[in-house]
Amino acid sequence: MSESPTEHFEHAEHAAHVAEIGDSFLSTVSVTIAILAVIAATVGSLESLETAATISAKNDAVFFQNKETDTWNFFQAKSIKKNLYEISAASNPAKSEEYLREAKRYETESRDVQKEAADLEHKKNAKLEESEHHEHRHHILTIGVTMLHVSIAVATIAIITHGKRWPWYMSLILGTMGVVASAYAYMGGNAAH
Q1: 8 A C-beta contact, residue 18 and residue 27
Q2: How many domains does the chain divide into?
Q3: Which residues of 110-121 are buried (b: 16+ CB within 10 A; e: fewer)?
Q4: Could you give the count of Cα atoms lying within 13 Å of 55 in the half-sphere of its Cβ?
Q5: 33 within a domain of the structure (yes/no)
Q6: Is the full-model pTM beyond 0.90?
Q7: For the chain, give me the number of helices (H) and strands (E)?
């Protein structure tokens, strides 16, 4: 969720206006809005970092997938050559020993290639799991930052209504929920992955 580059100026302007009024409750609301804005900006930055980590891990997974596919193709080629040498050994007894030696070499090489392909598959799966983990965090942080932005808007209602307390209380509840949701992304949200 991207922030307006002038949003913090708007909050400062509201705070300056409220300070001129001289109402201590409205000053408290104004400070609350400033604190919520800082927390929302921080959570928004974390959300962006998780998005970047998701994309990076998915790109790595695609890279490993391509290498894995190439390696499995190489394995197939080695296996085909091994089989051709075995067929040649059976159909040409004069060169049977030479052909069986080549078949054995390709069999050994194909096992090594098979191990490499399995390793690449493991790396690909690990990167996919990592990307899902970051994407899960991103979704939770999106909820958290949204709650924080709504809490700022609701707190502003307390200023607009010249000191009604319920919007401020509601903004504190929503802000707390946003902070808890954001913290869950890094604490409790990891248990699922």
Answers
A1: yes
A2: 1
A3: beebbebbeebb
A4: 6
A5: yes
A6: no
A7: 4, 0
Cβ-contact 32, 155 below 8 angstroms:
yes
Each residue's pLDDT tens digit, 115-155: 999 999 999 999 999 999 999 999 999 999 999 999 999 99
- Burial of 127: CB neighbours in 10 Å, binned 0-12, 13-18, 19+: buried
Confirm whether 1 is domain-assigned: no
What whole-number distance in Å separates Cα of residue 48 and Cα of residue 3?
Answer: 11
Measured between alpha carbons, how far is 159 from 18 in angstroms, rounded to an integer?
Answer: 8
What is the domain extent for residue 37? 7-190
**pLDDT tens-digit readout, 36-83:** 999 999 999 999 999 999 999 999 999 999 999 999 999 999 999 999
- Residue 2 covered by a domain: no
- Cα distance between residue 116 and residue 102, in whole Å: 21
Match 């051709």 to its residue by tokens.
84
